């Protein structure tokens, strides 16, 4: 049996993600430049937490689009990789663990930036100043270890491969001869750690958002913060929420398909490939939104890019006039 479409093939997956990384790297570098050298004094307190979020967002993009390039035979938890790490014969179990850790660290970086806002605005003189470092340390350590149960229970590959190929429809011969790796035949050891980690991060993020807005409303009523300060902080928080929420909404598209695919046992390789391409778009979209939604960075982009467009238009007009 041959591939029914080019979208089904490993070649398409590799080409698409190679093109993505060619676009992502310059955008991410420019985003890091803006954070490091164009962050104004009014945003100085959030500079390093924003850089931390940007770093892990960029890390996940590089992990998917360059280091691993996953080719997954979902709804089976099996597949192989086409990325740089495979060229250096890094075991697929290590590559799967790397992606899981990068996803966890990205989530923790979102919690970190929200915690940073809450601490600086409202908790510098409260008990939280003693608890925040252990709290943050726990989150980062947990991001590194939460996937250990899935890694520990990786099945014996010969029997696991037999089960996977029996579950899936007839596959192209190229897939049977590929170095297919089975992460798990029992979804429990993968789903439970991911479910626990994701719910923990969602609850922590929601808690800090509620605390920030609750304290802000309380101080507004007491007039302990100026209206200008309140307005400035609300504007920044709104921008931060947009910066984090829109990329997360983008991630919900492939996640929704993967859940549906598992429930109804649907195997569409082209859809599996597109899921990871969408996941790779996450970091790029986060950086582009950051550059647009925060006024100082938007102004930098306008000065650099629009001025060049204007200069080019003027030169072309001059040439036309001469002719």
TrEMBL record:
It comes from Caenorhabditis brenneri. This is CBN-SRH-275 protein. The gene is Cbn-srh-275. The chain crosses the membrane at residues 12-37, 49-74, 94-114, 135-154, 187-214, 235-259, 271-293. Signal peptide: none annotated. InterPro entries: 7TM_GPCR_serpentine_rcpt_Srh, Nematode_rcpt-like_serp_H. Pfam families: 7TM_GPCR_Srh. Keywords: Membrane, Transmembrane, Transmembrane helix.
